[in-house]
Amino acid sequence: MTASLPSAHAPVGIFDSGLGGLSVLRHIHAQLPHEHLLYFADSGFAPYGDKPEPIVIERVLTVAQYLLGQGAKALVVACNTATVAAVRELRERHPGMPIVGVEPGLKPAAALSKSGKVGVLATERTLRGAKFLALRDQIHRDSGAEFLLQPCIGLVDMIETGDLDSEAMRAMLARYVWPLIDHGADTLVLGCTHYPLVRDAIERVLAAYGAPGVALVDTGDAVARQLARLLAADALLRADDGTNDAALTGYTTAGAATLTTAFNSLLGIDPTVREVDLPLPAGWLSSPHI
Ligand code: DGL
Questions:
Q1: In sequence order, what are the beta bridge partners of 188?
Q2: For residues 116-140, average pLDDT
Q3: Which of 63, 189, 193, 223 is the best mutation target for the ligand 1 pocket, counting ligand atoms within 8 Å of the beta carbon and taking the most?
Q4: Residue 38: what are its φ and ψ, rounded to 5°?
Q5: Which of 100, 101, 116, 231 could form a disulfide with 87 if both were Cys (CB 3.0 to 4.6 A apart)?
Q6: To 10 degrees, what angle do helices 80-93 and 130-143 make?
């Protein structure tokens, strides 16, 4: 029996540990308005950034398998942490499938920086990942830019609660951002897809520190362009048939209300959201710490 070929009418599966991937989804939605989209928020298992790498890898493979079971023709790993940990395994497991990952935008940041010092805000897991460190070393060799790495422990958890600009949020951001400015950074990489959701708060915190001109770099737009390229190369782009019927369905491993509210407040849309139960990674219950 031959496996059936994916059709251009099939949806694109996009996933993240939680709400952060919505910062990527909005670019995909804008650039590819005719695509059916599935968005999976693993909020019930977030954050990924403080979990051991083998656990993150297993979880990513499970989420991807779920989206493929829903008929996805391509996958977008809208999470830096998941990409750094698991995109290689994902590609090995699904050869031939268009898979787009997210990487911190070190190269565009190095090109933008005048001081040659770039702050990188990301999860601990991303900043420790071999794939990220290899990228950092390569861009440093090519550009001479110095990267100041700042793990933002607790930030994803706070964003997952829906807090995008409280006093507590700004205090946490100041703790992470101001020392980078003190060390000469004039450009900051938002190396976690959750962080563009608090971009306004970061800008306020920078302005309050007398550093309003600091450039913020995220890669959501580039990810959407790469997805479009891969779909076009495999003749998987869904054409405009004049019906404007492209559908978006949300899936979450936490309560549906949180994802529904996020779709509403961040993207101004109100798609169907389904709650999903996935089996926990085998090693998680026996070794829950990093
Ligand atoms: N949005 C994820 C990322 O880009 C957050 C990871 C986490 O859950 O800690 O890294």
A1: 119, 216
A2: 96
A3: 193
A4: -115, 130
A5: 101
A6: 110
